[in-house]
Amino acid sequence: MNPISRIIARLSRYRRHKFAGPALLIAGLSIAGIGFSVAQAATTEIQKVTTSDKASLIAEGKEIFARGCSSCHGLNAEGAGAAPSLIGVGAASVDFQVATGRMPMADMSQQAMRKEPVYNEAEVAALAAYVASLAPGPAAVTNEELAWERSGDTALGGELFRTNCAMCHNLAGQGGALTQGKYAPTVMGVEPRHIYEAMVTGPQAMPVFANTVLTHDEKLSIIKWIKHAENEPALGGAALGRVGPVTEGLLAWTLGLGLLIGIAVWLTTKAR
Questions:
Q1: For 105-138, what is each residue's pLDDT tens digit?
Q2: Running DSSP on this structure, what letter comes out for residue 241?
Q3: Helices marked H in the chain — which ranges?
Q4: What are the structural domain ranges in the chain?
Q5: Within a 10 A sphere around the Cβ of 251, how many other Cβ atoms?
Q6: Which CATH architecture has domain 141-243?
Q7: What CATH number should be reported for the domain whose range is 35-140?
Q8: pLDDT at 164
């Protein structure tokens, strides 16, 4: 008999002892208590590290804000004559405006245009964390969190886009003119997360699409349709921007009239 078998055999003689049950119960409770204490200590330590990292991110964002944004939005983001308050707009609004290059901008009287961003991803995250710390608001998202490829419905997204978005952004999502010199930008080539953040924050002339208007899954379906439309081939030839019959009619008139004028000139020359 090997040593382990002898130990097991020796211990088995005491399993019917009157103190065996209480001893095992005490041992089990002790092991469970020690395990819980160790897990709680580890969780507390992780929370401390997370809180410290968040505080550092907010501090960095505050410094960036004071340097690049406070001249228009106020030292405490309370707003000023040139720009609105940012208290309560949330991280989603900051991520949309700054990561797409719309902010900062020199002339606040003009509509902000998408351009090359001034700040990198880390600086945008810090700015968003600082503004989010001022008051609750919509949270920023990532493309991975949205998972629109798996959740969206392309057909439903197209129907929802035509119902809720096409009157401004055009049926093909190419953008269009609005009143008072404003315009709805194209949604082609836009990051999925920025499309989602625009829907939940309503930048500039765009309305806010709350979950009571468009659910989370419906927003993902719209994103999926837009991404499908981006890659849709022009089977009929030149797409002409896919802005509708106006462009097609203008091209037809230009070519048609040009051809008629050319024929008229040729006939006049031949008659001489």
A1: 887 778 889 999 999 999 999 999 999 999 999 9
A2: G
A3: 3-12, 20-68, 70-73, 90-99, 121-134, 143-146, 148-151, 154-164, 166-169, 192-201, 216-230, 245-271
A4: 35-140, 141-243
A5: 12
A6: Orthogonal Bundle (1.10)
A7: 1.10.760.10
A8: 95
